[in-house]
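Try it yourself: sequence plus NDP, in.
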Amino acid sequence: MTSDMSRPVTDTILNFIGGVYRRGSDGKTFANVNPATGQHIGLVHEASKADVDAAVAAAKTALNGPWGRMTTAERIKLITAVAAEIERRSEDFLEAEVADTGKPRHVASHIDIPRGAANFRMFADVIATMPTESFATDTPDGGRALNYVARKPKGVIAVICPWNFPLLLMTWKVGPALACGNTVVVKPSEETPRTAALLGEVMNAVGMPEGVYNVVHGFGAGSAGEFLTSNKDVDAITFTGETGTGQAIMQKAAIGVRDVSFELGGKNPAIVFADADLDKVVEGLSRSVFLNTGQVCLGTERVYVERPLFDEFIRRMTMAAQAFKPGAAGDPAYLGPLISAEHQEKVLGYYAKAVAEGATVVTGGGVPEIDGAQGGGFYVEPTLWTGLAHDSTVMREEIFGPCCGVIPFDAEDEAVALANDTEYGLCATVWTENLSRAHRVAAEMRVGVCWVNCWFLRDLRTAFGGSGQSGIGREGGVHSLEFYTEIQNICVKL
Ligand code: NDP
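Structure, out:
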């Protein structure tokens, strides 16, 4: 059973600035809602502009304090201690994440929380083993010079993150930022402030110097998000969220020519060839469509199936969809709620639009009937459509819900063209037992990540990011160092 059902309305979620928990200086608060029940379960203290400026100032001061003077080995030790402390307090993080998102405990306990710790540990390892570039250079007078690269922290990094995997996506940025010697000001989504706030306790427990990690709560435009991106002492901005928000942040980043790293939206395709192992396909694609109630940037919303397999694929995927149980908290088949009433309305708008655009609703398409405490939660049914035109709105726009449209194809070229016909380019999956075709088609996908016969198999050392409107830059392993460090070339005449 989830314990969030009975959570009292007494939780107070504070900003964390300079190592101290603080209320918002202008007294504003907003409600923290449990999406599984629709109940208010806490009050979040919204950061004012003065609070955001104080957080950035604390982060800037910390760069020149004990943190800035630490050796790499000392920094690695602290960051590794953060990972261990998250693991020690994993139950607290689990409670916080489940309360904010309503997601199944087994999802949070297998994905969100362990990845929160792994994001610190892995980047501590990357820093510990990082090589540097050097060249022996001939000089005009017949002598030699040594060119080498020194990597320095970029400074104060603004970390702005979404609500779907709050701790995971935040630490994916905070881990490498700190490992590289930067300081951070985090603006979590207003829907999911808890784990970012809780991480402040971890930082204090391990003895992280004050100001290295700061959290400001609030909204986007006209609130903490915009105050943060507008602050001229922020040296770089790393953001995960919607493409439209990325565009707004980029305009702010232009002031002062600040660097950005963006992980944005997607409309990810799957191509299923007739020779694919259907058991593997249904296992992988049902997770890809329905895991986290479809609120996964890497999730699949467009499926192209080779015609001979089409009917059987639909039959099996329908069974898989119907096995997910919205509202059945505690049941291993629990399909959690969407994050908010507003997002539920958006997803249901696409469900209606699909019908208006001529879809056959194979399964789902509405709001499930749920009794008891969860009757007020923001649930929708897992949904499959056929009969949609490839260029329909529902097949082009990111929905971020537990749904996908399935379209048959007859030839490999046709499938590749359909999959690539999108302004996005985050990820794709290809399902085939034909080795040559697997490599050929994977290489033709215009995406940052292509999975073959699997999905969401992540190795944190690999480059992660999207092409097209799905992002700018790559993070992961040594690729994160490109963003979180400033490279200086030093040339020494010998
Ligand atoms: P949003 O873009 O709405 O919000 C993301 C964060 O940006 C939130 O903290 C939000 O604050 C903040 N924000 C909003 N407007 C501004 C602004 N003008 N200035 C500064 N900050 C702002 O995304 P969602 O939270 O709705 O997340 C879902 C989106 O994230 C989907 O599009 C999904 O594809 C994408 N995503 C991409 C991933 C990737 O790796 N490519 C991974 C996961 C998600 P607040 O919400 O509090 O208003």
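One thing you can check immediately is this: Residues 24 and 457 are 40 Å apart (CA to CA).
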